[in-house]
Amino acid sequence: MRIVATILIVYALCTVAYAEQPSTELTNAQNMYKELLQKIDTKFRPPPEGMYGKYPDALDALKSQLQSKADLDGILAVTKEIDRFKLAQNIPDDAIVQTPPELRNLQQKYAEIPLRIENQKKAEVADLTKRYLDRLKQIQDIYTRAGNLDKALEVKSEIDSLLSNIEPIQLEKPQTQPITPYNNHPASNNVGGNLLGESKDITQEAEISVSDFHPLCPANNVVDGNQDSKWRSDKRGSTSAWFQLTWKSPRTLTGITLRDSKHPTEWTPEMALEFSDGTRIEIKDVPRGSDAEKVINFEKPIKATWLKITPIRLSRGYYFGLSEVKVMGK
Fold this sequence. Notes:
The protein is α+β, with helices and mostly antiparallel strands. The protein contains seven helices and ten strands.
């Protein structure tokens, strides 16, 4: 019922009758927008048991599983993680272990929960804000046609304020963060190799996850087939941002095509590809803008369940983003 009510309220926001008094339309729209923002905030508030839910129970279950296998090293690693989590109540990147793989997979699964919740919340806020902006434009047009320019300018000021907060443009020096050295894996930039030709596009079969995103640039834009749309991190100058594709089972990856962000100042000339098997490939000379693509055919197939794309160097310290990604594999 709550979801249905929310949908009806959002619909009403976009279809307020023009017969309403012009002096109250802006105020009503503002109040409804604030009310719905509060509903979204309440919806995504962490539950009493915390953001990570049943992670402690999952650790106990894994410990019992490893005990049945007589895996002493695994039991010790899980016990250490249980003690760490009791104090920290979080799962930062530096806490994720390499072995045993069962623990690593469990950590990665639960570590993504806060990010997924935050991303879903941002997506709902972005959708609501777009509807609000559309409604404000309608109200501005009503005032303008009626010759009430003072009110029209008041609405325009609200629109400009929203847009300036949605798309802040500031210069910031890029942050430097060491990148973990993985196994080097050779790659070839030759287009049309036999290996790539024998594969198919498996991008749509993967689940998308990202470090964060700008409210108007969600992650799904990278696989929508539209090079004019994009995903973009919301952290200026951050080389810790990432875009990841995860498949339900191991796939044999043979190549990738990248299109950089369309925005002329959001160029990432150097990126890294990181794979679940520990392979790392550094990609240089990525073309500026989304009109040109970078095609990489792997000299050897890579069997992996996930592929992560990270920035190595950002042009002028701007945002890391991608317009389109296509992964070839079997």
